[in-house]
Amino acid sequence: MVIQELVTYCTLFQGVKPETVKDLFDRYGYALRSYPEQSFLAMQGETCRSLFILCHGHINASMINQEGRQIIVEQFTDWAVLAPAFLLATHNVFPVNIETTSPCEVLVLNKDTLLKMLHADLRMMENYLREISDKCAILTGRLNSFALKSLREQLLQYLHTREHYGKQQEIADRLGVARPSLNRVLQELCHEGIVKLERGKITLLKRSLPQPDP
């Protein structure tokens, strides 16, 4: 891990001088851990005792519903701060599984260490509070976006906001639906000329979202 990269790309340390970060690490300590692909950093229901910062790699946050099906909640890449709101919560447990999808390098700050760093540096504290606030705003937007929309509308929004799509099962997991339900909607969109399905590959033919009837 290079401290200059940390202060440049990680939102928690942006605006903090590299020498200040080095001093905080030297004074309070930290852990830098390597995880192979398909490793769990945390399991749904476990107590959250540390803050994770993904330095390099890819991670999925997912949960298991009552039917035992996995739903991908969020995907993370380099310099993402993972689950900052849960660490200081009254009920500080992970609501999701945090699993690597590639080899990862992760910076780990335990709760006491993080609190000492936040107390020592006001900019870092502001960044942490902003990180939590931004996560809450994003979550609220997602709830408004998905809870009030049909599967067709959710799928169209998903396709229009991405350049590359995964396999149908990956999309179904992302939207939290069964694959047959997703396939049924895809077939409808295919017949309407909005998407093309070829050997399991999805191609979006119309880039503009359809407008609702007045």
From TrEMBL:
Entry-linked Pfam families: cNMP_binding (PF00027), HTH_Crp_2 (PF13545)
Coiled-coil region(s): none
CDD domains per the UniProt record, alphabetical: CAP_ED
GO molecular function annotations of the record: DNA binding; DNA-binding transcription factor activity
GO cellular component assignments: cytosol
UniProt entry keywords in alphabetical sequence: DNA-binding, Transcription, Transcription regulation
UniProt-recorded name of the protein: Crp/Fnr family transcriptional regulator
Organism this protein belongs to: Tannerella forsythia
